[in-house]
Amino acid sequence: MVVALGHPCSAQKRSKVSDQLHLFSQPEQTVSCAADSPLTTESARLALGRWPGLYLGTSSWTFPGWSELVYGGEYSKTVLADRGLRAYSNLGFFRTVSLDRTYYRPMSEQGYFHLASQVPQGFKFVVKAPRELLRPTTRGFDLAAFSREFLTPLTGGLGDKLGVILIQFPPGTAADYGRPFLGYLSRFLKGLPRSLTFSLEVRDEELLDSDLSEAMKGAPVSLCGSIHSSLPSPDQQLLKVPPTPEIPLVFRWNIRPSMAYEDAKGRFEPFREIQMEDIKRRELLVRLVKRALKAGRSVYVTANNKAEGCAPLTLLRFLEGLDEEL
Predict the structure, then answer these.
(1) What distance in Å separates the CA atoms of residue 216 and residue 214, rounded to the nearest whole number?
(2) C-alpha span between 263 and 184 (Å, rounded)
(3) Which residues contact 21 (CB under 8 A, 6 or more apart)?
(4) Distance separating alpha carbons of residues 233 and 281, to the nearest angstrom
(5) Per-residue pLDDT tens for 147-195?
(6) What are phi and psi of 71, to 5 degrees?
(7) How far is CA 55 from CA 35, 61, 189, 248, 302, in A?
(8) What's the CA dihedral at 225, 50, 246, 133 to 10 degrees?
(9) Which residues neighbour 155 within 8 Å (Cβ) at sequence distance 6 or greater?
(10) CATH, domain range 29-324
């Protein structure tokens, strides 16, 4: 399968059209980076420099509560969604972000291009595949539709700023589709383009076994280590389904397992500070990530506000822990 990666001339045309439109529009509100943020201290900068293969990021960037931590002022969620990514990515601390909105609806090539134009070279996106394209029929997955409706606009819009594509299956997948699911999944994964990198996140513990390893064999995909209430700890996940050689690893610190999503959201909003520190899981991630980095792998670690209360500070403490392990 050939996936269109976009042509540089098309990007130039889009840029010219965008410039022309701006001639007739009102000045946009510029989002600035926070000054004197704990994320931009000399110690944080040096720690990041010691781990060039490490990509730290959050699940989205659109949180007004990150004022003076990530953003240098008060901005609405709408403004941050449209223009905050530039400040987020230029802060110097984040090298990735998890683009979760695509799980609910595919984006256009122009939409991806708009995001890519805001981030510097070296920044890489983790992008969730749309759930509607990950529902097998009795004939399996529609790989042609997956490529046409998702991969082609994605690669054309993000280009070399695409890092990893996350394929996530929700809790209940095993019960919904039964054992034939692994056969469908195997054919789908083995048909994915080798020029791209994929991470597989399953939310059913019963799927984590040698049959899943066999389904992934030979495909450009490795298991995602996820901290989630429906799963065992990431080290147990990777013990049951060992990482695929030479594929970047993704670890997603999603939520405190003892809390429901809405409970965590209600307790932690507006996500300005860590409210329930989770030292045990942080130390576990530090050990797993350090091992992978020392083995020469690239590693993506993304954190959600529902993990401890403030995703940027969760990542900062993770980085400090990683540095202490040297």
Answers:
(1) 5
(2) 35
(3) none
(4) 8
(5) 999 999 999 999 999 999 999 999 999 888 987 899 999 999 999 999 9
(6) -110, 140
(7) 22, 15, 24, 10, 8
(8) 50
(9) 3, 4, 5, 6, 162, 196
(10) 3.20.20.410
Taking each helix axis as running N to C, give the angle between helix 109-116 and helix 8-22, from 0 to 180 degrees, rounded to the nearest 10: 80
Contacts 24+ apart (CB under 8 A), 85-91: 85/61, 85/115, 85/118, 85/119, 86/31, 86/118, 86/119, 87/31, 87/32, 87/33, 88/61, 89/118, 89/119, 89/120, 89/123, 90/33, 90/119, 90/120, 91/33, 91/34, 91/37, 91/39, 91/40
Q: Which two tokens stand for residue 212?
A: 């899943």
pLDDT at 229: 87
Q: Mind listing the pLDDT tens digit for each residue in 70-121?
A: 999 999 999 999 999 999 999 999 999 999 999 999 999 999 999 999 999 9
How confident is residue 323, by pLDDT bands cut at 50, 70 and 90? confident
Structure token pair of residue 197: 């990198």
Residue 141 DSSP label? -
| 125: β partners | 97, 162
Listed in sequence order, the DSSP H helices in 121-225 are 143-146, 152-158, 173-177, 180-190, 210-216
Angle in degrees, CA 157, 57, 52, rounded to 5: 90
Domain ranges in the chain? 29-324
Give 230: exposed, middle or buried? Use CB within 10 Å, 0-12, 13-18, 19+: middle
- CA atoms of 134 and 128, how far apart (whole Å): 11
* DSSP classification of residue 84: H
Task: Please report which helix (H) or strand (E) contains residue 249, including its range.
Answer: strand 249-253
Cα-Cα-Cα-Cα torsion 14, 17, 23, 26, nearest 10 degrees, comes to -60
- Read off the tokens for 67: 């004022």
* Helix (H) / strand (E) containing 55: strand 54-58
Type of residue found at 101: R
For the chain, how big is the Rg over CA atoms in Å? 20
Edge-first strand listing for the sheet containing 162-169: 96-99, 124-128, 162-169, 198-202, 221-223
Q: What is the token pair recorded at 74?
A: 């008060």
